[in-house]
Design brief:
By secondary structure, the chain is an all-alpha fold. Helix 2 runs parallel beside helix 4 and helix 3 runs antiparallel to helix 4. The chain is globular.
């Protein structure tokens, strides 16, 4: 989902659909899988992931904030390396 993200589109509906898809993807991961997923991304992918995490905080769904905090923690650790 990150590799096909519509970052440069002006179509707001497409961006919102991508955000919804990313939130579903992020919340489907088990806690033990998050670090490996973050480490599989390049720097640009991690930057885009962080943007999706912040967007997810703006429009939380049931239990999404707790999961997004776990993603945020792993991305911050990655950024500190």
């Amino acid at each position: 989902a990150i590799r096909s993200s519509p970052v440069n589109t002006k179509n707001q509906a497409m961006k919102e659909q991508a955000q919804g898809t990313m939130l579903k993807v992020l919340t489907s991961f088990k806690s033990s899988e998050i670090e490996q997923a973050v480490n599989s991304l390049d720097r640009n992918g991690v930057d885009l992931l962080m943007k999706y995490i912040y967007k997810g905080f703006e429009k939380p769904t049931e239990n999404s904030s707790a999961i997004l905090l776990q993603w945020h923690e792993k991305v911050r650790v990655f950024g500190a390396l």
